[in-house]
Amino acid sequence: MKYYLITAILMAGLISSAVGQVASHAPSTATPSKGMAFQSTTLQPTGKPVATVNGAVLTDKDLLREMYAIFPYAKQHNGGFPKAQEAGIRQGALEMIIFEEMVYQEAQRRKMTVPAVKIDQAEAAFRKQFESPEQFQEYLQMEMHGSRQQLRKTIERSLLIDQLLKQEVDKKAVVTTAELRAYYDKNGARFQLPESYTFQSISIIPPLKPTATQATEAKKKADEALKQAKGTKSYEDFGLLAEKVSEDDFRVNMGFHRPTAADTLPPQIVAAFKAMKPGEVSGLIPIESAYTIVRLNAHTLAHKQSFDDVKANLKTELQQKKAEQLRSNLAKQLRAKSKIEVV
Q1: Cα(101)–Cα(246) distance, rounded to whole angstroms?
Q2: Considering the domain boundaries, does residue 319 fall inside one?
Q3: Spatial contact of 330 and 169, defined as CB atoms under 8 Å apart
Q4: Which of the four, 115, 139, 165, 240, has the lowest number of CB atoms within 10 Å?
Q5: Same-domain status, 45 and 73
Q6: Residue 5 — φ and ψ, nearest 5°?
Q7: Is 134 in the same domain as 49?
């Protein structure tokens, strides 16, 4: 599991000159929703302290860098964060930079080192982030006071953080095949899949309470859609027709529905499927005032997934959970022996 990218640590300084140029150290799960209200960030990074960890000062530049790592979409909104989420993003970022500093100090306490060749490689990779040598020199002057030594020290810090986390989290989070098998056997019900259908649909949907004229027009459109659907010969043919004439949300994906449990589908649809073979197209299926046409792609009976089928995804899931717990425990242990002050 990769927690840090060197560019994220180093690019922090660029916030002061170009808010939207900060790189993210990890994929963000926070995504903007339609209609979300944004506001310009209240942080204007000047190097002002926001916290200390055993005397080491963390600044608003560090904080804002981490806020953009958590919510990189802000760069699309002139550096603003969602009003409803800004406080939470700020708190999460503050916790993260404090955690980073504690990990770094622990690595120093253990006298961990980074080979010079690794620092050289990381520095070379970082330089490639810039469009020209002049741009890199400008960054070096503005954010590292012209000191290449300071740049290399910042790189080393990032590598030490990553090194300690790999040692205390990644390596200890490995889940063996025997552990996976034991979990699979103990939680058999979880891997039991219900009867399901994979299909495509075309729907003609009149207003909620259609007039007689609207109902007649809907039936006419549905009859014409059925005539065309019966003439399709493949998934692609049916899908293109769905994109053209269907009025349900699945039309944007060729009418495709992922495997869907039978007990979650309207009974009219299930009844139609029971009389069909894969590749066949149904007749008109009335559901309230709407009409639906379905093409059956696959029918899967209820069954238990085999261990081999779930092993890869299960390993990823369990290792992630184990890593999160190890990381949480590490944070608690480090906090217990650290003096932290939030300014």
Answers
A1: 55
A2: no
A3: yes
A4: 115
A5: yes
A6: -115, 135
A7: yes
Distance of CA 153 to the CA centre of its chain: 31
Host H or E run for residue 192: strand 192-193
DSSP annotation of 24 reads: P
CA-based end-to-end distance of the chain: 32
CATH number at residue 296: 3.10.50.40
User: What own/partner pairs with CB < 8 Å and gap ≥ 24 does 205-214 have?
Assistant: 205/247, 205/248, 205/289, 205/290, 206/289, 206/290, 208/289, 209/289, 210/289
pLDDT per residue as tens digits for the range 252-311: 999 999 999 999 999 999 999 999 999 999 999 999 999 999 999 999 999 999 999 999
The C-alpha atoms of residue 314 and residue 320 are separated, in whole angstroms, by 10
CA distances from 259 to 90, 133, 160, 195, 330 (A): 40, 53, 45, 9, 41
Rounded Cα distance between 104 and 148, Å, is: 20
Q: Tell me if the pTM is above 0.90.
A: no
